[in-house]
Amino acid sequence: MAKFNENFLELKESYLFSEVAKRVSAFKEQHPERSVIRLGIGDVTLPLGKTVVEAMRSAAEEMGQAETFRGYGPEQGYDFLRTAIQKHYKAFGVELDADEIFVSDGAKSDTGNITDLFSKDNTVLIPDPVYPVYVDTNTMNGRNIIYINGTAENDFLPMPDRSVHADLIYICSPNNPTGACYNRTQLRKWVDYALENDAVILFDSAYESFVSDESLPHSIYEIAGAESCAVEFCSLSKTAGFTGTRCGYTIVPKAITAKSADGREMILNKMWNRRQCTKFNGVPYVIQRAAEAVFSDQGMAEARAMTDSYMENARIISNTMEELKIRYTGGINSPYIWFECPFGMNSWDFFDFLLEKAGVVGTPGAGFGKNGDNWFRLTAFNSRENTAEAMKRFRTLLSANG
Ligand SMILES: *Cc1c(COP(=O)(O)O)cnc(C)c1O
Prior knowledge:
Bound molecules: pyridoxal-5'-phosphate
Helix content: 25-40%
CATH architecture of the largest domain: 3-Layer(aba) Sandwich
Shape: globular
CATH class of the largest domain: Alpha Beta
Distance between the termini: 61 Å
Strand content: 15-25%
CATH superfamily of the largest domain: Type I PLP-dependent aspartate aminotransferase-like (Major domain)
Structural class: alpha/beta
CATH topology of the largest domain: Aspartate Aminotransferase, domain 2
């Protein structure tokens, strides 16, 4: 009989969102008359921009004509899109070669797939609280994980500990779930730590476009030296509403190497290319044309209008936290607001309390790691009206109980 990958037995039951759904449907069954507002959504809700849809439509037309039909494309992505991404990075002052850019079907798959390039015998450093994909993909490979704590004391921006060695380091900034965002000085320390440890940083910048504070970096390559130690994952999912359309890009600079057992310096860019050419046949032409349109002036303006709209919701939520003097992070350069549960409650108790008393759904912090036990995540992805109504109920509930 085929032998199973035992590492999968080590995976923790991912019960966060199913448990949330279960409790919400039980509540609705008991209280069919009550209105429920979901601020737990981790998915965009605004439709694609006009420019993007038009680009998809005309690319679809091309696919239906013999003269312009396209079959297999380059695994790394079409030049037109790689060039558009290159220009996008120039705006951050970052120069990339086109062959350092790999177009993908999203950041989730690539943050997981990149682990193919690294031996099982690497120590992986992962912040807690965390986006669960980093933990689960490394667990599937049987790698040793060490955690660093994000807490109120470090504003949920854990910094490297020089007494601990790591080979692979996951950083997500602006962060999901905490909304916290590293500044240049802090990222400088991470890059220095990675260079000292010959480690590779796996930098998730899926929320890059939510950064509005001009002093904060959009890309880790804004920090000198990162080009020789960091891989960056980006996505149009949150930037331009592509969660269902699927397109992202991964930057693997040619200067990054990893050691083989016989002492050779392997160039990660070459090996990632090899991996992609073997296991991936590229993103659909129509979708790459849509992605190209996002990077046009008009497309960028439409994407900015979406993020601005979400950020107005985020402001409504963070203003409420300010008013009620609740400790929180995020909401300024991120669509997530992460706050301390009031009345010393743990996050599941607070989940029930908020649902039962206010009909508002959020996400218990415990689902993102032990440092989230007393914290709670709200998102800016619902409508303006619902967000405002949810915060009105939230204020009333807390004032009545405070
Ligand atoms: C939403 C999200 C992504 C984007 O994933 P896609 O696969 O591109 O949709 C990546 N990282 C984090 C932390 C996210 O929250």
